[in-house]
């Protein structure tokens, strides 16, 4: 082992002091000079970071508009989303947003209770749908409330990582990608919601000839509001409330998946930046200190993944569970005959969209794991002269650590998981 | 390796009881003196340990009251449970407790035979329940008898570990936690037992109008005692015996799961103490001898897990098997219509409780494995200057060794197992 | 490191062409000169390689006739397949072959549309067959078009590897083996195609007594062309077109599997050459530089596998998916009674052949993985005196890297996969 | 790393020369002196090995009587089974045993053909039983013939290992254990065979009142000989032949499993000897040369396992496949009502016995894997002063190499496999 190389960088006590750039003439000096900014002094630096053009692609800014949208529906009630940096983020119990969020949570909870009440008068799969749907939404509100309390810390850790790895720059067009994904998913959800309403109104219209009766019938019988009107009387006010209620619940249900996709995308992009940088050193002779540095940067990324996972793993579990349930339901529905074009279109779109959302979610989340494994290949190409203890540590860390999002550690989201779940679906659907 | 770096850190950075530095010279002296405070001389040291306040949370004392309860039902017949230290524990074949235990075992065995006899007159699932239930109880009695013989050694090994790792202290509020878990599980079991009796008496009451007839009918037809009264005549004495018998069997069945939960909890707490201590050194520059010491302490914990596993892995297998069977049974029951409120409440509680118990058991047992992996993350954060052969050995050991409870090595209890078993349940229940 | 030990072994222990020892000094000189014979200067070297007898077994030449055959059906439209070396390979959008390929793709796409149209008039499994079959063929055409663009780079990388590892020679009889496999698979496919037509004509003959009517009936009702004649009128020209169309689609469907088998075979043979060479050094004392060299050669092979995988992993996924579908279909078919001898023979052959193809494909592809693990065993036999950091790196690489073909990283093709898929089939077929 | 320790043993060119015993004063000199006998000189030594008392437990002698028994039924036709050492073993095509074996193979093949013929006249599960049963037996004969050719090499490799590891002694009571297992399995098989005949004769007796008619009926209708008498006429000679034929086939079917159990047992015992020896050094300070030596001995055991696996892995695959089939069949049988006591007893015994055999086989074979992992634990206990590169290599080898019997590399026989197969059985049986 290159013990003789050691004195060069044992001089400074801490290993976070600037790299001995003078000791590495083989590559361009300025290239990784930015890395000398460690975690310790970020407090000072952060204030100096101004909202410049690059920052648009920082995590805090890239997801801000999506979070603002979510807040309109009572999700993730944190203050300071539009502030120039993550350090301004705050969670307060006695803020308007939190109050609104709790109000929405109570509303969803009430709906779940209604659905449970109606289910008792006769168990059927249709009613159990209502319980699962509103139950999921209620739990989602709770989990996002919990996440809101952890969000400031998470965003600050992420921002610090971005600053300490500023020499990689910010992911290119991250904000744009996030906006495109958001648009696609929310539009799909909107279409599905509209088709759902249309098909239910069509059924109601077939039963009656009067428009008022039709709406009455729609709200109390064919719509997904029957759990409300089984308990309350029908009136224009309650109907409107039910409509809004249902719209919000649908948004929340879709936003859960979207949210996981977005943070996965943002994290994957950071891993990609890291990998691109690393690949540029493929096969070159580099000092041990370089590998020590690069391993610690990987370690920071892996820390961030772990923090993120600890924040959202419950949401991931709920999301996978509900998607599994609704895909099974749709498969069951597909066995009964479909009447009318609207119904057929609705069924196809609804089934296709839930599949699309689940697969997209899985692939985006799995890409974190895929990217986290890629440095391995560069390490295999390290020439023997340049092989160093830290290279072996790096490889060891990649291989022994699972850097991925998980569902409360019950499963890690990888491509293999998607295959396993598909096989399970196939088995369940043929057995049913 | 930077042994010269040691003084820097020995001066009192750690907030816990300083490591027995004066005890360190043994590294240079003896061969394996590092563990000499461990197994070799424990006989001497143990007498010096007095029943002080901390000791309440030692394993031996924390589980003592639960074991005494179990002994009232003939389980785990060891002597000296209430003694001040584990060295006083003894197993004797010719003690009253052992005799009582064997008596209970024979009783359970007799019940199983009755259940087999009654089953021959016509196989049905209801009767196979009796065979499985009493068979499980009989096997449980045998396994606890076997465990009683190994218990003294296990408790002594555990106590020695507690003494040799005294600088970590004892788990905070271990005894309290154990009591809470015990209360929750046993109360749930009691409610289930009561509901079961109520629902059966309700059926009996519906058939007759006379109270005596009702009890007669209850014991010989609707109760779970029919295996007895198919062989013996009905009398007040036999009825009382059958009642007690059934109560004891139910307790035993529930205690098996509880027992696994308790020892898992106690062991997890020890791993947590270790991890908390280790985390306090995250990122610091430490000498190799520190890592050697810490690795050996981890190794002791892993040894203890292995010893515990070898003692209880058969009980774990029986517990998982019977829970799997009864969950499948309840799923099958759920297909047939439920009559009456008592029946519905009983079914829901019974199903919910067996699910709760199984999931709780799995999660508590899996937490050993989860905790055993956590030191990994501290090792990734070891700075390059402090990296030492022993750090690499430690990481290697964590990664290559599976420190977890197992079902006779057929499976290790991890969170993934819970998921796999759920998928199996799902498949089986849709297929049936 | 025991570099001084080198002369002992260079004196001619090896029975193969001695390693290019004169090329070795580059280790000390350049940065990554070890691979400099590899990618950097291949442009120059390649022209010097003449079409000598050995070259017949080089990858480029061994698969050339199969690719030419495929090009007759519009697959893999690259130019320069018969050129003396891989550097002459080119892909051009505006070449005749590419145009032909796109024409075939459009034809297959049209057929899929026809099949979708006919399916809408009533969903049945028979019609869904048509959609899946022509859908698969269409996607296959697209994927081969995409592959054609990557083929020149792949072939050049492969040729460079062959040149840089020229001391291993070329795989013995590779071209012969490839021709045998091709003949077996294509003959089997031809027999199946003929039997399929015969059984359909037999059904048509049973319905009518006139020969013209019979053909008319065959094309419009019993044949697999009904999707065409549901849209177009029947005429001699369209019937002929339909026949050719169907023949080409069947060829394409079979060629996909064959193609994966062929490249797997060729790659496996390269791993075998490497392993044979390595085994000849089993247990010998060798210098570290030898191990560095051998590890880099293994690394090149693993690089090539990765490149190949990135090129064909989509094709692999489509192939596995369609085989899974058609085996399930045949299992379902086997439940309905078979009428007549021709039908029985056709069913048996068809089912047997799809099984044979799938298993053969899996085994050939899995053999890459099997061979990639074999060097491990030689490394365990390295004597302690000869143990070197590079040996440990080599072992580490073998163990931590999965060198195998994959289905878009969803699964790696190993023997275990075949077993898992069989278990899934078994479960699905008993459940249905 | 103890580079200074190296010159001591670099003196001899080969690492197989006697260990520098004088360099290891810390443990008794004679203790492992026997290990100096390497593989190179076994040719000479072998002749010196006389048939002494210890040798009774050597592999060659321990399994000899079982192999002789097998040869009576035409299995494993090697010459020299009773010779004093394995070097006398020979396989010859033109020996009586081989001829007899081929004769039996042809007989079994003929039976399979008969069974296929009869099945064509109407497919039913009962007939498919005959095809699977005789097909399995035929394939088994072929595989044992193939094994006979490899047996001499295998036995010699095993004997050499025993000689080179003579300091461990021979497994205690190996021959006795083998005889006990053989007796238990063959007795169970005999009882099953007798019960099978009894139940079939009972059915025949119920149909007729004449004894001759009864036998006639038995042989042509109710027995498992119908495939013969569907082709040939019934006569006393053919009936006797059919009886013998069936008996031999049943023996062969059972012997396959027994054989795998026996070799697994013998190999496990060798691993146990090794582990016992290794455990006696737990926690001691030992030189690197000791670890090099012990690792090579482990390596030899792992080599032997690999050789054994390559010889019998096909037999293992056939055995697992046929057991899987017959357990599924019995589960299906259990659904149809059982008539009469003999039938019930036969069914219970038959089902219980096939389960017992499969589980025993799995557990014995899995114990090789279990034992191969045990040295790991001793290596974790190696004190830091004694830690050596070879210790790390040893641990690495244990962890990265799978030392177990396999079914043609499709699966390795471990305890987990048994669980997986059980889950598959459960799923299949509930789905059917």
Q: What does it look like?
A:
Four copies of one chain form a homotetramer. Chain A is an all-alpha fold. Chain A has one domain. In chain A, 69% of the residues lie in helices and 0% in strands. The first copy, chain A, has 15 helices and no strands. The first copy, chain A, has helices spanning 7-10, 42-48, 59-62, 64-72, 96-120, 125-164, 174-207, 211-222, 226-229, 236-279, 288-335, 341-373, 375-380, 389-400, 415-431. In chain A, helix 6 runs antiparallel to helix 11 and helix 11 packs antiparallel against helix 12. The longest helix of chain A has 48 residues, at 288-335. Chain A is elongated and about 85 Å long. Residues 1-51 of chain A have low confidence and may be disordered. The interface between A and C is medium-sized, with 24 and 27 residues.
């Amino acid at each position: 082992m290159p013990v003789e190389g050691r004195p060069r960088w044992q001089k400074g006590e801490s290993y976070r002091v600037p790299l001995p750039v003078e000791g590495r003439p083989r590559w361009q000096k300025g290239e990784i000079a930015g890395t000398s900014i460690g975690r310790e002094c970020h407090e000072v630096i952060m204030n100096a970071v101004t909202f410049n053009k690059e920052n648009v692609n920082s995590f805090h800014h890239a997801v801000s508009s999506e979070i603002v949208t979510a807040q309109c529906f009572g999700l993730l009630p944190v203050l300071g989303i539009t502030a120039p940096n993550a350090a301004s983020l705050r969670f307060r119990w006695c803020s308007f947003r939190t109050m609104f969020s709790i109000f929405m949570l109570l509303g969803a909870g009430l709906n779940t209770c209604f659905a449970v009440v109606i289910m008792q008068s006769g168990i059927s799969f249709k009613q159990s749908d209502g319980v699962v749907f509103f139950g999921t939404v209620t739990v989602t509100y709770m989990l996002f409330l919990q996440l809101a309390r952890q969000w400031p810390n998470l965003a600050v850790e992420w921002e610090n990582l971005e600053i300490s790895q500023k020499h990689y720059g910010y992911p290119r067009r991250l904000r744009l990608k996030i906006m495109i994904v958001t648009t696609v998913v929310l539009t799909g959800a909107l279409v599905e919601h509209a088709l759902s309403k249309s098909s239910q109104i069509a059924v109601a219209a077939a039963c009656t000839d009067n428009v008022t009766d039709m709406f009455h019938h729609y709200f109390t019988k064919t719509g997904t509001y029957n759990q409300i009107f089984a308990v309350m009387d029908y009136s224009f006010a309650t109907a409107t409330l039910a409509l809004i209620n249902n719209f919000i619940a649908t948004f929340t249900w879709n936003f859960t998946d979207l949210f996981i996709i977005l943070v996965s995308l943002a994290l994957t992009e950071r891993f990609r930046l890291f990998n691109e940088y690393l690949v540029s050193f493929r096969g070159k002779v580099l000092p041990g200190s370089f590998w020590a540095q690069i391993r610690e940067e990987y370690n920071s990324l892996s820390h961030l993944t772990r923090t993120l996972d600890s924040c959202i793993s419950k949401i991931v579990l709920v999301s996978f569970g509900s998607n599994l349930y609704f895909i099974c339901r749709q498969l069951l529905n597909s066995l009964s005959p479909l009447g009318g074009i609207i119904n057929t279109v609705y069924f196809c779109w609804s089934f296709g969209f839930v599949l699309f959302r689940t697969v997209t979610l899985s692939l985006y989340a799995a890409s974190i794991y895929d990217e986290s494994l890629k440095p391995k290949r560069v390490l295999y190409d390290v020439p023997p002269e340049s092989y160093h203890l830290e290279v072996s540590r790096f490889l060891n860390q990649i291989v022994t650590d699972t850097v991925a999002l998980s569902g409360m550690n019950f499963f890690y989201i990888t491509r293999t998981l998607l295959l396993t779940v598909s096989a399970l679906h196939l088995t369940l659907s043929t057995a049913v």
